[in-house]
Amino acid sequence: MLVYKQLVKQLLHNKIFVSLLLLLTVLTSLSFYFVIFSIDGNMAVLNTLTTLTENQQLYKNALDANTSLAYTFFISTIVLTSFVFVMFFYRFYRGNKKQIGCIKALGFKDSSLRACFVYFVAVLSVIGTVLGLVGGYFLSDVLIHANTNTYSVTGLVKGVSLMNLFVGLIVSTAMFCLIAFLCYFFIKGKGPGLLMGGNRSCPGVSFSLKAANCISGMIPTKNKFPLRIALRKPLSICLILVAVMSFTVCIILGRSLNSSSQKIFETQTMGHNYEYDTTYSEYQTTSVSENMISYLENTSRVFIGSHEIEQTMTGFYTLNSLYELQDTKENILSAPKAGTVYINPSLYEVYGLNIGDRLVTDIAGISLAFTVANIATNAKSANIYVNVNELSKILNVPIGAYNGILSTEKINGDVTITKEQRIDILNRLAVSNKISAVINQSIGGVVGAILIFIALYVNFQDNTHDILILYMMGYQTRRIRQMLIDVYMPIVWTAFFLTLAPGIGLARLIQKSLSISTNDYMPFGTSIFVVVLVFLGLNIIYLLIQVLFELAIKRIITKEAISFTD
Q1: DSSP letter string over 367-427?
Q2: Sign of the dihedral defined by the CA atoms of residues 106, 107, 109, 113, in that order
Q3: What is the rounded CA–CA span in Å between residue 295 and residue 312?
Q4: Residue 273, SS3?
Q5: Which secondary-structure segment (H or E) carries 363?
Q6: Cα distance between residue 466 and residue 79, in whole Å
Q7: How far apart are CA 23 and CA 418, in angstroms?
Q8: 402-407 and 293-304 as β-strands: parallel, antiparallel, unpaired?
Q9: pLDDT in the model for residue 202
Q10: Pairing of strands 366-375, 340-343
Q11: Which residues make beta-bridge pairs with 343?
Q12: Helix intervals (H) in 96-109
C-alpha cells in the first residue's frame, strides 16, 4: 500500500499537468451534458405526444440536430484528451524510470503497477465527469431559455436519459482507463536493471537532434540556438500541431454553422416572390389564374449510394416571376424536360450528386431513374423538380391535376403558408445552428488554449535547468523568454499554415456528417475573414501564455537567488 501511495504521490507531483488533465475531463463531460440536459427530458415528452404543433415539430428537429452535435463534440474531446493522457504517461515513465525500477526490484509485478495507474486515471476521470455533469446541469438553462423564446414552447424541463447518463459517465472514463492501460507498455517487460540504468534509445535521440540541426541550419545565426532547443523535443512540436489544428477546426466549423443559417435563409427567399403557398389533400383539376403557379408534388424516396433519403418530387405546370428557379450561376431555369430533374443543393453538397449523374427514385412504389440536368440553388427544402406531365403519368392522375398553388393572394385550400410564416420558420431553424456554433467555438477556444499551454509547459518544465544556467551566464529574463518561449511563435504560425487546408477539409467532413445524421441541410462555408480570425485567436492565446511563462521564469530565478543567498 505504501508503494502505491508513493506512485500516486509521484503522479500528483506534476500538479499543473494533472490539473489540466482534470480540466480536460471536465470539459469533455461538460460539452456533452450541457446540451444533453436540454434535450432528453423534452424529447421524451415530445415522443409521448400523438400529434405535434408546428412549433413543437420545429423544436424536435432542433433537438435532433443538437443531439448529433453533442455526440460529435463528445467524441472529439475524448480523442484530444486521450492524446494528452498519452503524453502525460510518456513523460511520467520517462522521468520516473529509476523509481519504477526500484519498485520492480522489490518484487512488484507489471500487473499490479499497471492497475495502480489505471485506478488513478479512473478516479481522476470520475471526478472530472461528475463536475462536468453538475456544470452541464446548470448551464443547460441557457439552451432551455433560448429554445423557449425561439420556438414559443412552454414547460421545458431538464433531464437526461439512462443511456446518455451511462455514455457520459462510463464511456469517457473507460476510454481514459484504456489509454492508461496501453501506455504502460512504455515500460512493460523492462527489467529493474534496465529501468534504473536509465538507458535510452540512441537512434531516436540522434534522429531528433539531426533533424533539429538540419532545420536550424537554414535560418539566421542568431535564431539557431533557441530553434534547436525547441526542435529537440518533437513531442512538443507534435502537440502544437494537434492543438492548432483542433482550434482551427472548431472555429471554422462554428463559423460555418453560423453562416449556413444565413445561406439557407437567402436561398429559401431568393426568387420566392409568392405570398401564399396553398396545398390540398386531394388532387384538384379546376383551372387557376395566370398570375398563379399550380404544381403537383409527391413524397418519394431517392437512393444515393447506401443512403435512402426522403424527398418531395415536384412538377410545375408553369414558372413565372412568382417563383424563379436559379442555377449555381443565378441563371433562370425553365421547367425540366422529361427524364431529367433539378436537384436541391443538399443532394449536391452533402451526398455528392452532380450534373449528369443518374438519380434512382421510388415514386408511388415505382422505381425510376432520372438524369440530373441542373442544380436549383433556391429549391424548396428537400425538393426535387421533375417534368410535371411525366409526374402526372407516374402518379396516374389527369394532366393538369395539382395539389398545390403559389399565389400573391390568399385562396381557399387545406393548408396555407404565408410568406411571413415561411420567414419565421427559417429564422427559428437558424437558431439551432447558431447556438451550436457558439458551443463549438467556445469549446474549441478553451481546448485549443489548454493544448497550446501544455505544449509550451512541457518545454518550459524540461528547460528549468537551462533557465538557471542562462541566468547565471548573465542573461536577463526577457532574453531568456525570447530564447526558450518566443521561439515557439513561428512554430505556431507554421503549424497554422500547415494544418489550415486539412483543418478546413476536416471541418467540412464533420459538417457533412452532421447533415447526413440529422437529415438537415447545413451548407459549409468559410472565408478569408474566418481564416484571419483563427490566426488572430491563436496569437492572442499565445501572447497570454507568454505573459504567464515570463512570470514563471522570474519566479524560478527569484527562488534560485534566495536559495543561493541562504
Answers
A1: EEEEEEEEE-TTPPTTEEEE-HHHHHHHHT--TT-EEEEEESS----SEEEEHHHHHHHHH
A2: negative
A3: 12
A4: coil
A5: strand 358-363
A6: 33
A7: 49
A8: antiparallel
A9: 43
A10: parallel
A11: 375
A12: 97-105
- Give the containing element (helix H, strand E) for 358: strand 358-363
Q: How many Cβ atoms sit within 10 Å of the Cβ of residue 415?
A: 10
DSSP 426-477: HHHHHHHHHHHHHHHHHHHHHHHHHHHHHHHHHHHHHTHHHHHHHHHTT--H
The whole-angstrom separation of Cα 292 and Cα 271 is 15
**Measured between alpha carbons, how far apart are the two ends of the chain, in Å?**
38
Highest mean pLDDT among 97-106, 141-150, 184-193, 492-501: 492-501
Cβ distance 108 to 7 under 8 Å? no
The 10s digit of each residue's pLDDT in 64-88 is 878 887 888 888 889 889 988 998 8
b/e burial code for range 452-474 (CB count within 10 A of at least 16 → b): bbbbbbbbbebbeeebeebbeee
When pLDDT is averaged across residues 266-276 and rounded to a whole number, the result is: 92
Please report how many Cα atoms fall inside a 13 Å half-sphere around the Cα of residue 64, on the Cβ side. Answer: 17
Residue with cell 490539473: 19
User: Could you tell me which of 35, 39, 151, 141 has the C-alpha nearest to residue 428?
Assistant: 151
Per-residue model confidence as pLDDT tens digits over 204-220: 444 545 555 565 555 55
Q: Which of 95-104, 334-343, 399-408 has the lowest mean pLDDT?
A: 95-104
CB neighbour list of residue 185: distance below 8 Å, 6 or more residues apart = none
Residue of higher predicted confidence among 522 and 367: 367
Q: Which three cell numbers stand for residue 219?
A: 535560418
Residue given cell 442555377 in the structure block? 327
Cell, residue 323: 417563383
Cell numbers 383539376 correspond to 285
DSSP state of 333: P
Flag whether pLDDT at 203 surpasses 50: no
Residue 563 banded pLDDT, cuts 50, 70, 90: low
- Which segment of 115-129, 288-302, 378-392, 480-494 scores lowest on mean pLDDT? 480-494
Residue pair 33/140 in contact (Cβ under 8 Å)? The answer is yes
DSSP state of 299: E
* Side chain identity, residue 425: I
Mean pLDDT of the residues in the chain: 83
Eight-class DSSP state of 272: B
**Backbone φ/ψ region at 428: left (φ over 0), alpha (ψ -120 to 50), beta:** alpha
- DSSP-assigned states of every residue in 306-331: TEEEEEEEEEES---TTB--B-TT-P
pLDDT band at 6 (very low <50, low <70, confident <90, very high): confident
Distance CA 277, CA 284 (A): 15
Quick one: DSSP state of residue 485? T
Query: What's the angle, vertex CA 68, arms to CA 62 and CA 70, rounded to 5?
Result: 95
Instruction: Return the SS3 of 271.
Output: coil
Cell of 410: 390568399
Q: pLDDT for 145-188, tens place per residue?
A: 878 877 778 888 899 999 999 999 999 999 999 999 999 888 88
Q: Are 201 and 426 in contact (CB under 8 A)?
A: no
Count Cβ neighbours within 10 Å for each residue of 248-277 and write b for 16 or more, e otherwise. Answer: bbbbbbbbbbbbbbebbeebbeebbebebb
